Amino acid sequence: xxxxxxxxxxxxxxxxxxxxxxxxxxxxxxxxxxxxxxxxxxxxxxxxxxxxxxxxxxxxxxxxxxxxxxxxxxxxxxxxxxxxxxxxxxxxxxxxxxxxxxxxxxxxxxxxxxxxxxxxxxxxxxxxxxxxxxxxxxxxxxxxxxxxxxxxxxxxxxxxxxxxxxxxxxxxxxxxxxxxxxxxxxxxxxxxxxxxxxxxxxxxxxxxxxxxxxxxxxxxxxxxxxxxxxxxxxxxxxxxxxxxxxxxxxxxxxxxxxxxxxxxxxxxxxxxxxxxxxxxxxxxxxxxxxxxxxxxxxxxxxxxxxxxxxxxxxx
Length: 315
Ligand code: ATP
Fold this sequence. Notes:
This protein is of the alpha+beta class. It is 33% helix and 28% strand.
């Protein structure tokens, strides 16, 4: 008896396309920064939290690799091989030993160089989109390995949720807490801040301090998350990069004050800034804080967002 040869039904197959992937942005609820390591990275201990400001990547088949973009800040973003989207597609193709052929399109809402990991989010979305388009069937863990080479935040943007980040942020472990929705008000600044410049500023603020800065643990933050109370969480939000971002962009002090005056539970600089995020008790409170912040006229735009959100996923 002969058996018909055909693709195994469990085998991933190329998708006819288009594949659309939505990816959230992130804030760091806790960002502990250790001393500069010999490899040029800082040791981090951070709690990532994915929030609902989204970018979208669409992938179609093509006979070369191309990228088009629309939306927030894309006029300032190079379309060439330095773009993290191109780098992600090429890295995945090299890993899977397939040709990097795709037509990619980015719809961007995450502010550029805003401390919300927009570039890493786009890289993560590209990995998920091309994996499906090319029928690679790679696991999130495998994609995260490819992503870690592209940027420290890329693995988290693949998983989303709320997670502990260690190493230089690329090692991610989910935080298992009962599901709670947190309400955020996001103050978007005019212009970005360069992440390397903010780390350099932190190093110079710390220069000569003795004993050397210790890496603050995220234990208190994780205990607060489990209590599911916004006041408790607000009391322990913290970001070691905040003093450096404030030195480089003193106006952020006014933004933080305006959020406080608008009744936010607390506010912090998101990652390397200049975006500031404010915690609210519920959706109505977030709307009121957003209105107050807008009226203060201290930032370019104000949006509300909920977290946690799932990582990059096909829609
Ligand atoms: P992080 O919080 O991860 O430090 P960020 O949110 O401050 O990052 P990004 O928007 O991720 O900043 O961009 C940082 C820089 O990365 C940009 O100024 C740009 O030069 C480069 N970049 C390359 N590709 C992209 C992309 N697809 N989207 C955004 N930035 C990109």
